[in-house]
């Protein structure tokens, strides 16, 4: 089937190598892609080869790289192995790129996902030279049918001086109609309220727009998204899911949630996906989701009829889930809507809809501060993503994690987190396989008792209680949030020195 039917852009079809040749050393490149879905499949790899050849000749060749969120190894991984990235934003989780970020080779700018597009638009990051965006088709009028993610594609197409379009024949042509691209944003002081009051409400267009004069190349591809298989829920994940679902039941019984709950948001990963799976056996019906990524758990709830509406910015399915969607794509139209991430993560909308946010964490401290991104305070594991967008503005938020890591050598509950992504003011409920700590309305002292008693692993509870008692005794005039500053990060230092906390 012909995918490029625009008479203006059709003649600009070229090879990936020729398109990559249009990207110059030092350019800033904005690419499509969000959690392994919708990233360009050919041009970044061709660019990586070109960069490698330039380095072989002793020439400097690195680029700035902007995206929606993480991409596939064909983008971040290829360019990292070619030493082709000078600066990266707003999110990355690729292991090869992570290594270069952590050794200082690549400058990494970690940004809330709701902020990335608008701050680029405000000019905070400087000019964008090139956009490389994957689409499903180019229509006769030049409009673009988006693919399996929207991310920041709208903004990159608007800001870039030059645009390369990858038209991927692997994408179902039936994706037309799955998207809602909002073009009503403006710079302050000319902004107006975003008129969205329910997850599936349309406020924009089903197509992306591009100025044809900026399109310098159209590359046709036929390659799948690269999504990571999800491991089956283990005992710890199931325990967390059960506690969270029981807590939702309690909130319904107390009249603080309606029987159909409120729109759900779930972060990316096995634990968050297990929580969605836990809702399969619960009594809740007519559920909805206003989230970033559609993982297998949400697809399961849709297929079971428990979930009626999902608004997101991207898919993040396992290979099996991806095939299930492709085989039944038509049945999901009208139940799934993909939006630009500046809308899917918009604080105004998250707060108005009353989202229930469920996100993972690396560690939390006894007062409820959460570290989502940095191992031992310095080594980046992944960006903050959208967890901050949702946690601060949610009606109800949860942070979930196993209580220990590295076979019990690390406690996920510590005296003081080694890096703060979410302060105690933005954290309502902590969940581990040990239990659930509802921190709403509690003083720091009460928070510490509840976190230790309900979330810490038994191997670490007595030591945490001892820390609090000694901190309270050491400074009688400073008992509001007592700490022993000489020991607050001592557990982390002990792990670095001895391999165990």
Count of DSSP E strands? Answer: 26
Main beta-sheet strand count, sense and barrel state: 8 strands, mixed
> How would you classify the quaternary structure?
single chain
Strand content: 15-25%
Q: So what's the overall shape?
A: globular
Helicity, as a percent range: 25-40%
First and last CA, distance: 59 Å
Number of helices: 17
The secondary-structure class comes to alpha/beta
Outline the structure in words:
- It is a single chain.
- This protein is of the alpha/beta class and 501 residues long.
- The chain is 31% helix and 19% strand.
- The chain has 17 helices and 26 strands.
- Strands 1, 2, 3, 4, 5, 6, 7 and 9 form an 8-stranded mixed β-sheet that branches.
- It is globular and about 75 Å long.
- The model has no long low-confidence stretch (mean pLDDT 95).
Q: Summed up, what is this model?
A:
This protein has 501 residues and is an alpha/beta fold. The termini are far apart.
Keywords:
single chain, 501 residues, alpha/beta, 5-stranded mixed beta sheet
What secondary-structure arrangement, pairings included, does this model have?
Elements: H1 16-20, E1 28-31, H2 43-56, E2 63-66, H3 73-81, E3 85-89, H4 95-102, E4 107-108, H5 113-121, E5 130-138, E6 144-146, H6 153-159, E7 162-168, E8 179-180, E9 215-221, H7 235-253, E10 264-266, H8 270-278, E11 287-290, E12 293-294, H9 296-303, E13 307-312, E14 314-315, H10 319-327, H11 329-332, E15 336-339, H12 341-344, H13 347-353, E16 356-360, E17 363-365, E18 370-371, E19 374-375, E20 379-380, H14 387-393, E21 396-400, E22 404-405, E23 410-411, E24 413-414, E25 429-432, E26 435-438, H15 444-455, H16 458-474, H17 490-498
Helix pairs in contact: 2-3, 3-4, 7-8, 8-9, 13-14, 15-16
